[in-house]
Amino acid sequence: MRPNGTARVTFICFSLCIASLSPHIATGTRPKKKSWPVTFSQEDLRKRLSPLQYHVTQERGTESAFRGEFTEHKSEGTYTCVVCGAPLFRSDTKFDSGSGWPAFSDLVNQDSVVLTDDYSFGMHRVETTCSQCGAHLGHLFEDGPRPTGKRYCINSASLAFQPKDPAPPPPPAGAEGGAEAAPTSKTEL
Q1: Is 153 known to be catalytic?
Q2: Who has the most CB within 10 Å: 45, 107, 168, 189?
């Protein structure tokens, strides 16, 4: 047998051992959490979410870089899970990482997301999922700004936004300082 053939057999045996010991490492998948505090039927999710939101949150997809709704978003408020509404990130922790996806340096609270090793695409990353419904959000990297040093690289499609100070409702018709009262009879027209 040629030395080249021996190396190939060794590599195949090694690969099979790794696959049998840890199938999620070899295939790039992650073990699924059996239950989440908040659940939705697939039918409901397909009705409520856009095709991109469904693909990202339910199928662990990724939106195109620099195209997401919240990539350049600068308003003050809280970013929430698009699936269940759980608060995830505050706008004061958002920064421009240059990656093409929204980036945050910290969470609303440490229980906002679940971190899971992700070996897909032949590399190791740390996947972030919503701790309430299990929606895929993006990945965590250790190259963010101080003081946390964290960069939560998140798909816009997995987020919704709650403004800090929503616009107040208009005053009722006829209220002092508000719009004029609407006519109440034909004679007033």
Answers
A1: yes
A2: 107
